[in-house]
Amino acid sequence: MNFKPEIEYQPRDIIKKFQENELQKMLAYVNEKSTFYKQMFMSEKIDPLKIKTLEDLSYIPVTLKEDLQLHNEDFFCVEKSKIVDYITTSGTLSDPTTFAMTDKDLDRLAYNEAISFTCAGGYQGEIYQLMTTIDKRFMAGLAYFLGIRMMGGSVIRVGNGIPELQWDTIKRIQPQAIICVPSFILRIIKYAEEHGIDYKNSSIKKAVCIGENLREDDFSLNLLGKKIKEKWNIDLYSTYASTEMSTTFCECEAGHGGHHHPELIICELLDDDNNPVPEGEAGELTVTTLGVEGMPLLRFKTGDIARFHYEPCSCGRTTMRISPIIGRKNQMIKFKGTTLYPASIFDVLDNVDYVENYIVEVSSNDIGTDEVTVIVGSVANEKEELIKDLKDRFRARLRVAPDIVFDDIDKIRKIQYPESKRKPVKFIDKR
Q: What pLDDT is attached to residue 19?
């Protein structure tokens, strides 16, 4: 099987025509199989057979997370006897939604990850240590396993946490790559330093990173990425995905954005009025899945703010590339007249040596404006001096400084890594 699809090297007009053909197939499918979309087409007096171009998508209303929550099973396009795997979203901002996966969907998921890992320099025989869960109804861990298997690589399913077990596994099996949340790399580096492990001369050559940004908007490494590289000079590949998309945007060796796979998904960037933003501007990523059998989605608004880049990549692919996620629309903070996203606050904290861990809390005050409190864990003394230093760093980077309080490191860690969550909790929205 070719894991460098020819369509990803074609001119933009060829890619567009290809997607429009796939779109018409998907519209015919959901019009026949999806209770939700059949009802929507009827109520909005839309003839899906007249939707011929990507521009025509604007005639179809967007699908929101609330629609998935309120009408979950109305999105199912197959009988339950054809569902082989049930998955739920991580519920970052809301209640989780159930997704139904058929055999065909799992094959598509494997293909998606096989071409993504290949994009990130993956090859047959490469050994990956999976530092994410493969259970708890989590799509990503299963997708990585299936994709590496299809690519012809090997997987060590260690799961998340437990630095001691991670290093024991690396020593025993000698994998070349790890798959993990990038902030966890700093945890295993710290463990290695404290226990005399020569991690710089280990078998690990690269990390495929999930869940957190590694780069600034100009594709340079952000503070978290720089901190990892300063400690451990391995190749870092950033990825972006979500359960609803069943698709991954993965960097190539150029590190200039996650590559779009046009055979799997149609992407738009929309403003608050659901109109396309001008090319080069940021907007809310809105997706239409292609080739999904169990639960396809039309114009689903992900809540993630990003930019698209269309100039050809040095790797030879001509597909659109997505920028690092600027933030989640529902997590936008208006603080002292400045618009912030949690990621920008994380970037400051991740570059401070005396910050062991942290939680960012946002709440509303008596007059309805946002208040930001950063709860920091640190073994350092002279907390008053550290508060002043942190506030100076925030003002230099963001122009504003949140309230800062110190708390017990273990207490913060328990909040960050609750058993019920599959991703680290760094941001708590109390508004």
A: 97
Amino acid at site 245 = M
pLDDT digits (tens, 9 = 90+) for 22-37: 999 999 999 999 999 9
For the domain made up of 332-429, give the CATH fold: GMP Synthetase; Chain A, domain 3 (3.30.300)
Cα 131 to Cα 182: distance, rounded to the nearest angstrom = 11
- Report whether pLDDT(367) > 70: no
Greater pLDDT, 408 or 344: 408
User: Tens digit of pLDDT for each residue in 208-234?
Assistant: 999 888 898 899 998 888 889 999 999
14, exposed or middle or buried, with CB in 10 Å at 0-12, 13-18, 19+?
middle
User: Whole-model pTM?
Assistant: 0.80
- CATH class, domain 1-328, is alpha beta
CA pair distance 91, 96, nearest whole angstrom: 4
Contact criterion met (CB below 8 Å) for 322 and 130:
no
Helical (H) or strand (E) element with 221: none
Say whether 122 sits in a helix, a strand or coil. coil
Q: Structural domain boundaries of the chain?
A: 1-328, 332-429
Contact 362, 372 (CB under 8 A): yes
b/e per residue, 303-336, with b = 16+ CB within 10 A?
bbbbbbbeeebebebbbbbbbbbbbbbebebebe
Torsion of CA 64, 302, 282, 217, to 10 degrees: 160
